[in-house]
Design goal:
This protein has two helices and seven strands; from the N terminus they run E-E-H-H-E-E-E-E-E. It is of the alpha+beta class. Strand 3 and strand 4 form a beta hairpin. InterPro entries: C-type_lectin-like, C-type_lectin-like/link_sf, CTDL_fold.
Length: 117
Amino acid sequence: MLVYQSLNTLFTFHLYENKTLNWTDAQDFCRENYTDLVTLYNQEESEQLKQLMASNSSYKAWIGLHRKEHSLKWSNGDTVNDTAWLPLPSPSTEPMCATILKDNTTWENCTEQKNFV
């Protein structure tokens, strides 16, 4: 596990680099450990996560963002109100989940095995 903690704020990111799970199992793992997949509320948090991922560019990791039908939600249930997550995944009946690799966010099938933040 790689940890990034900001000196200026109260949040910590944990990149589970030695553990790969599908999105739902990653969410369950986080919740069993009293947390959740990462939710990014502002540009500062997004930039700090990009810094963490840039130092570990070989890891594509789940974040808490997912799409069911036509709505985006964070793992904790919060609605997404930021266009930073565009383009949206192609319309499909399957849920799609967001991953991050360096500073690039992509949409993947939620059943794939990935590291997670």
